[in-house]
Amino acid sequence: MIVVWFKRDLRIKDHQPLFEAANSGEILPVYLLSPEYWESCVYQRRHLEFTKESLDQLNDNLEKLGGRLFTFAGSAADMFQELHALYGDFKIFTYNDFGEESPYSKEAGRWAEEQGISIKEFHRVDETLSIKPAKWKKQMLEQQFLPDIQSIQLPASLPDFPHRRNSRKYNIEIKGDKIHFGQQGGETRALETLSVFLQERLATFAEGLGDPISAANMSSRLSPYLSHGDLSISTIFREIKNSEYCHNLFHGKHFDFFVKKLHKYYLSQRETEAWSPQMEADTYSSLAKPESEHLLSSFLQGMTGLPLLDASIRCLHKTGWVDERLRGLQVSFLVHVLGESWEVAVRKLGPLFLDFDPVIFQREAMLAAGGKKLTASHIVHPVAFSKKIDPQGRFIKRYLPELKNLPENYIHEPWKYPGFYTLGYQPPIVEIDKIIRQMKLYLKETAEKEKAKEGPEQLQFDI
Fold first, then answer.
1. Domain of 99?
2. What is the pLDDT of residues 306-336, one digit of tens each?
3. CB-CB contact of 12 with 19 (8 Å)
4. pTM of the model
5. Is 427 left (phi over 0), alpha (psi -120 to 50) or beta?
6. Strands of 2-6's sheet, edge to edge?
7. Binding-site sequence positions for FAD
8. Overall domain count for the chain
9. Mean pLDDT in residue range 56-71
10. Which of 124, 157, 175 lies at the terminal end of a domain, its last residue?
11. 141, 256 in Cβ contact below 8 A?
12. Is 138 helix (H, G, I), strand (E, B) or coil?
């Protein structure tokens, strides 16, 4: 018998461990719902609820094939020990993992080694694919897609730990709130979202990302499903090839723009295991201020007094998603204006995103912060940026009811409005112009010092 251990890969399509196990005989699909993990990890209730929804749909899809999903509450070693007592020796098929899940896989690995049990780990990411977007696109469209699983054979005797439908009794105390206006988890919902996107939005995808409201409306909305493993990139390309709506888009700018985003996500996954935060360093650490709980709290509540920034944070609380430009604004303000480290961005800001993947977000946060390659382009002025991407303040007014009746010419700088103190809106918590000016001056002086250290340029000859 083969135990298929699901982690952040809650799907039946393009699931190699499940496919190979199902074609080998009896299998037992399991998921480890560890209260200790959820109560101590960086994830929040929004992620747990999304995971539960994904587990429900995974169980439904397994039942259609003759299987079920069994959920165990406890440690990985305890789960496999209980199964070993029932079945004797078996094999374990699972995807490899990294980040916060790794300790549980290592625990299972130690148990398996002691018991002489075989664990076969499959790679989540195909590292043989090209890092060049055009070639990668061609490879993805021409690949041999994994066939759909036709049936599943469960063992004659089943474990007595709960079937998925009864696992709601586990009361896990976890920080954060549910999202009432965000997406729900599950492979079926992921495929429906993908289908609607291919039919209705892909043809104008690149043009629809001009401002925060249209970005939310025109986005693919696939990132939470990718990060939770409800959907794979290969499945996206398979659906694209099979969709009648996409055949005339293969060489269009909108399709290429979408593929570039998928390729960027692929590279983030691929580079994640080899990347570590020690590979970068904060060049601006000399400017970093002592952590201020008050300023950080105001930022995380969307009460900085800077309208676009506050609107983006409140939108994030409400929906779990903002577009990548607003994410860059948030990280830039947190790191460069408040002087916090990128670690704070990962631990405090990152978990508000429904598509949060700690390791990928960590890397992206450091890139947005600048690291060793920090330049003025990494420093985003919230007011200037607001005027650029939300000139009429439509996004601001949607998420800041205090400013919904404010005249347009004051929407980006409400503190200049004569009746500001009647609005009930927070004054700016920092002198933003002064801080941005100091930061850019620091960068200029640092660059000049580095150039002086290098001395006169030496002539070099190519061979």
1. 1-124
2. 999 999 999 999 999 999 899 999 999 998 8
3. no
4. 0.88
5. beta
6. 70-72, 27-32, 2-6, 91-95, 118-122
7. 219-223, 258, 355-357
8. 3
9. 96
10. 124
11. no
12. helix
